[in-house]
Write a structure and sequence with these properties.
Number of strands: 16
Mean pLDDT: 90
Strand content: 25-35%
Number of domains: 3
Shape: globular
Strand order of the largest sheet: 13-12-9-10-11-14-16-15
Distance between the termini: 44 Å
Low-confidence stretches: none
Amino acid sequence: MKYFRMNLNYENELYGRSFKKKFNDVFDYMLFWCQEEQSTLITENEFSDDYLNYIQNYTDFKCLYSKSHQLTENWWGKLKDYDVERKLNSKVFLNQCLRKNNLLDEKSAIVGSIKELKEMIQNNNNNTWILKKPTGFSGIGNFILTNNEKIPKIEEYPIILEEYHKRIIDFGSSFKIENNKIHFKSINSNLYTQAGQLKGSVIFPNENHYNEIYQSFSLDKNNFIEKQLRILKEYAEQGAEGDIQVDSYLYIKDGIVKIRPLVEVNYRKTFSHIFNCFKKFIPQQSIGLFLICGKNELIHYKSFEQQRESLSEFLYTAGHGVLPLSPISRLFECYLLVSTENSMQDLLAKFVETRLIKEKQTSFRKKMNESLKWFGKIM
């Protein structure tokens, strides 16, 4: 048996930054849903019997957990070869690889000082920029900046400067590198805020849906996957082994839909790996909507049983409905909504009215409408 801790603070540990240890366990329960063999979760959290029995109705393995074990492994990121992992998870390395392969956007740059940053912004007629920390993750610490705004205080250089794009659909392409060979695993449509913070995913049961998206925007899928593989070859040559993900997105510029095939490369597991674990709950003619909701958005219940009862009229059954995934009162709670494309809007509306506090319903609907409108029939 293996013993795993869900080390979501991977980047902070990798780069020696201070962090709140509890964040490692915010999504620890996902290991129960994603087990590929019988494992034990190492966590500081406790779980109710009601919640654990509920999960085992849907999985093939027991939900085992403990506070410690001497054979504990990291699940999210390895933390074994620090030099290689630091290099390959840095946005500076990606920027260098893109430049070497003539794939770098012309307004993207590694900026070494506040003076250089000011000069680059003043010398370009672009209206909006995005600033990224080279070792940041999940959009944390990103800044969206217009030419007229004061540059925020940046504690450490270099930083990555990029032209800001109005994203319409985000993709996460998962690969596995084994003995220098790159294997494509899957692709997901992820839901992000404009600053790059993850809010969930639209999950299709097979790859045909993605082909339809590319064709509807007259995009060449093979062309952008070839570019991703070209860059991943650089990562393999530098020692990458195991899970790795490439983020990309569609955006609109001058009225034309374009694709940015390489936004970030994450040399670790990602939420796309988690999203893939739930494809088995989605029938072929349906879609899934994975939602990550903040605790401050949700109605509070005293027990997991009470929460399920509130959703009783449309709980997941026979390939349709809402599947609660997380214990109650976590910093974030996750839900999987499964429906046909034509009825997803109704199911989403019921979920919002039932689970979200009234003060948050309007803003939540607005965010979801903005994220989902490019998926056609869903909205």
